[in-house]
Amino acid sequence: MNYELFKEVVAEKFKDYLPEQFANMEVSIKSVEKVNRSLDSLHFSGSEGNMVTPTIYINDMYNKYLQNENLEEVLQNSAVMLENAMEEVPMVGAIDFNTAKDNIVFQLINTEQNIELLSGVPNRKFQDLSIMYRWVIKTDETGIQSTIVKDALAEKLGMSEEQLFKVAVENTKRIFPPVVKSMNDVIRDMFMKDGMPGDIVDMMIGEMPAEQTMWVISNERGINGAASMLYEDKLNKLATDLDNDLYIMPSSVHEVIAVSTSMGDPNELAQMVAEINMDQVSLDERLSNQVYHYDKDLRKLSLATNTPNKRLDGVVAEPKQFYEAEKFR
Predict the structure, then answer these.
(1) Assuming Cys at both sites, which of 154, 257, 268, 307 could form a disulfide with 249, CB separation 3.0 to 4.6 Å?
(2) Which pLDDT does position 322 carry in this prediction?
(3) How far apart are CA 74 and CA 72, in angstroms?
(4) Domain boundaries in the chain?
(5) Per-residue model confidence (pLDDT) at position 137
(6) pLDDT digits (tens, 9 = 90+) for 271-286
């Protein structure tokens, strides 16, 4: 069964697997713009049109169908997942909009890959990337609950893009503190969490001169941590410690990798970034195929490369002019 036919079948049959509270509702499929891609979601409407329901993506259901070719099992499992997720809905409905300004953070996404998404959200350009905003609803040991601030939500909050930007600068640093770690330290932490003794880990990893080390820039939660490179003071401290400018490689939306400019040619690094993106990073987590240059004397971050693969899905786009957003500390 191809995807288009699968969508039609799901729209027709899915309600049969849901509890009675959905009996008088209609099921339809709507396209939803997510980071780096568009997805098809199930939408419920009817006599209980004001009812808030979790999002179920047809794309995910189809991927599971391709694995086992059991349509009934996919529908049943998705229905159970929806029922279980419904238990969280009352908590979302109790959100206090008055405290929203204290929980607005920013996220970096690729501009060329997200033209449709960016057309409906407050944003500003940063090199070949765009800064958009998320409202963090809840954070705890189980995870982070947040939503993209779209134009309609920004209007409801009564906040302009400039206001969103100003509060996000402080909120992001407070809620998701930026961190800079050597790759050796990151690997060491991973091994020690698995129970390996510290002396054994140190013997395995060894020591690497600072100027030959890769440095991971993210945040304490490791979620959407690439935005931490917007804090210029962190880049300046690292560059000053290394006594050299930096090349910054976008590993994913969650982190970027910084190296001394003595480590290689930016175009060769960009080729490596693009290959890793296509082979090892899921589309929804890719950030850019470009490499950035941080000048420690000018205290300025700029594009070091301008390769033609601006998009992240393998489609080559026409080069465009991008403008640098203001730096902040």
Answers:
(1) 257
(2) 38
(3) 5
(4) 3-93, 97-173, 178-303
(5) 85
(6) 999 999 999 999 999 9
Q: Burial of 304 by CB count in 10 Å (0-12 exposed, 13-18 middle, 19+ buried)? A: buried
Q: Which residue has the tokens 């300004």?
A: 101
Which of 298, 276, 295, 297 has its CA nearest to residue 287?
276
| Ranges 117-131, 135-149, 168-182: which has the least confidence | 135-149
**pLDDT tier at 51, thresholds 50, 70, 90:** low
Tokens read off for 256: 């970027």
CB 181, CB 158: distance < 8 Å: no
C-alpha count within 13 angstroms, C-beta hemisphere, residue 127: 26
75 secondary structure, DSSP code: H
pLDDT score, position 285: 96
**Nearest residue to 236 via CA among 224, 220, 251, 248:** 248
Residue type, 258: A
Is residue 176 within 8 A of residue 108, CB to CB? The reply is no
Query: In Å, what is the CA distance from 165 to each residue of 95, 225, 274?
Result: 21, 17, 30
> CA 255, CA 246: separation in Å to the nearest integer?
15
Give the separation between CA 237 and CA 169, rounded to whole angstroms.
19
Query: How distant, in Å, are the alpha carbons of 158, 198, 238, 262, 263 from that of 213?
Result: 45, 20, 11, 11, 9
pLDDT of residue 193: 67
